Amino acid sequence: MDNRMVEVLNRIRFAERYQALRIQYSFDLQESFEDYDNQHVLEMLQEIGYTSVKYWRKEDFFQAKKKSNIYEFRYHICIKYGVAELMWYAMKDNKYYEGDTFPNLEYELLNLENRNHLQIFRNYEDLHGILTIAFQMHEDMTSEFLKIHGDST
Question: What pTM value is reported for the model?
Answer without folding.
Answer: 0.92
